[in-house]
Write a structure and sequence with these properties.
There is one protein chain. The chain contains two helices and ten strands; from the N terminus they run βββαβββββββα. It is mostly beta strands. It has one domain: Metal Binding Protein, Guanine Nucleotide Exchange Factor, Chain A (Beta Complex). A hairpin with a 6-residue loop joins β1 and β2. It is globular and about 40 Å long. The N and C termini lie far apart (about 35 Å).
Length: about 140
């Protein structure tokens, strides 16, 4: 059964056949600004499991300047209501979906916090999920 989601105004709609994960809560300054919260929960879905159902014409994007290295930080959002929305990128095998957009329960829970050194003091991490700094993520990716 597909997991459905949408933006605030309902103009952009999508569904996913599976919630693959990872399901990370990112505390970097850019995700915090996009979400307006202490961290943005994002769920990765394999591109082949994702379908944009409506509102493609409403989706706009903005690319932030690169801070530490590629890839660039790209925000895709509904031009009507401003909600961050998913849009598959050609150079990735997955789609990152802001978890608050799901209309249905995705059936998966967050599995980690990332970029935790940027978490604000007013939004402390109080759960027992694993935490990773930018440096730990970089070392893991370099392998």
């Amino acid at each position: 059964m597909a997991i459905k989601g949408s933006c605030l105004c309902g103009g952009v709609t999508f569904e996913a056949d599976a919630a693959d994960g990872p399901f990370e809560i990112c505390h970097c300054s850019r995700c915090r600004k996009v979400s307006g919260a202490g961290g943005m929960p994002g769920l990765a879905v394999a591109k082949e499991h994702f379908r944009l159902l409506g509102g493609r014409d409403l989706i706009h994007s903005w690319t932030a300047p690169i801070l530490h290295g590629p890839p660039a930080y790209v925000v895709t959002f509904c031009s009507r209501c401003g909600s961050p929305v998913p849009l598959p990128a050609d150079d990735f095998d997955f789609v990152e979906i802001p978890a608050g957009l799901f209309d249905d329960e995705p059936g998966i829970q967050p599995d980690k916090h990332i970029f935790v050194e940027y978490a604000p003091a007013w939004a402390p991490i109080t759960d027992n999920l694993p935490t990773f700094t930018r440096e730990e993520i970089r070392r893991h990716r370099e392998g």
